């Protein structure tokens, strides 16, 4: 695979930055668009490097890393979905296969309803689909509390609550919000408020994404091949439960990938993840 080429794209409300990794051995494979939210292109570099036989597209969501916002307006599931369509149009290579993780796996469900001709196969890895969970009302309250904490106290306290939420290994009990707030220092997070309020996840995504309800009837009729997926680790966590709920709603079984919620990257927090093994599974699923 060649070194990635970086491009920018001026879209309503933002300037997006995306990368295209071309291949020196073009074959029959469609381009692969790898995306997440709020994860940016760099979070998928290890996975992208495993696909040397096809063009790979990665990008930074608006408001994240190299992609900038032009204003302080709302960023919603639909906004991200429109951005995916614009990136694929700008690349100009036609239909793509998609691996989408976390919030990205939520947003793509709006994209493929609006633009089904953009995508052949969608692998939706651990979408935290609050609207499909039996504890949705509690989950909505908890996520709204995180957003309120962010605007009131700043990044550290809010991110500590977010980490506590995504690690919780079961449906949320009714008294979840009665527990003491976690200490940000426990997670190596700042305890002081630096005054910034530009974090995409805490300031915008969590304000809108939990309210998103996928159009299940349209997804069931979609010509796009949809593959709900979960990690083999993290049983009971919200994102994993979301992936299982999506599979159930579409009348299929979720595919199990190696590793945890971020099984496509090995780092200091998840040293046991194996991106190469993850890529083997993804290649198998895409081959269908």
TrEMBL record:
<dbReference type="InterPro" id="IPR029058">
    <property type="entry name" value="AB_hydrolase_fold"/>
</dbReference>
<feature type="domain" description="AB hydrolase-1">
    <location>
        <begin position="46"/>
        <end position="173"/>
    </location>
</feature>
<dbReference type="GO" id="GO:0016787">
    <property type="term" value="F:hydrolase activity"/>
</dbReference>
<protein>
    <submittedName>
        <fullName>Alpha/beta hydrolase fold protein</fullName>
    </submittedName>
</protein>
<keyword id="KW-0378">Hydrolase</keyword>
<dbReference type="Pfam" id="PF00561">
    <property type="entry name" value="Abhydrolase_1"/>
</dbReference>
<dbReference type="InterPro" id="IPR000073">
    <property type="entry name" value="AB_hydrolase_1"/>
</dbReference>
């Amino acid at each position: 695979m060649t070194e990635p080429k970086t491009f920018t794209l001026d879209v309503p409300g933002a300037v997006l930055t995306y990368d295209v990794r071309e291949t020196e051995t073009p074959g029959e494979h469609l381009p692969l668009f790898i995306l997440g939210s709020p994860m940016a292109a760099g979070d998928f570099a290890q996975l992208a490097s495993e696909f040397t036989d096809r063009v790979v597209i990665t990008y930074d969501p608006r408001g994240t890393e190299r992609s900038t916002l032009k204003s302080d307006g709302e960023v919603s599931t639909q906004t991200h979905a429109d951005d995916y369509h614009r990136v694929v149009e700008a690349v100009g290579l036609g239909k793509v296969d998609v691996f989408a993780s976390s919030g990205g796996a939520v947003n793509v469900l709006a994209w493929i309803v609006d633009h089904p001709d953009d995508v052949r196969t969608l692998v939706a890895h651990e979408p935290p689909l609050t609207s499909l969970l039996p504890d949705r009302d509690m989950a909505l309250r908890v996520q709204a509390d995180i957003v309120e904490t962010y605007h009131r106290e700043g990044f550290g306290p809010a991110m500590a609550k977010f980490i506590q939420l995504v690690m919780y290994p079961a449906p949320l009990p009714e008294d979840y919000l009665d527990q003491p707030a976690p200490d940000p220092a426990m997670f190596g997070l700042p305890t002081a408020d630096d005054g910034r309020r530009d974090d995409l996840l805490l300031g915008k995504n969590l304000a809108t994404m939990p309210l998103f309800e996928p159009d299940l009837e349209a997804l069931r009729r979609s010509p796009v091949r949809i593959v709900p997926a979960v990690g083999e680790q993290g049983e009971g966590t919200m994102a994993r439960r979301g992936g299982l709920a999506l599979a159930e709603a579409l009348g299929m079984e979720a595919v199990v990938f190696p590793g945890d919620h971020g099984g496509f990257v090995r780092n200091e927090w998840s040293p046991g993840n194996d991106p190469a093994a993850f890529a083997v599974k993804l290649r198998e699923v895409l081959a269908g």
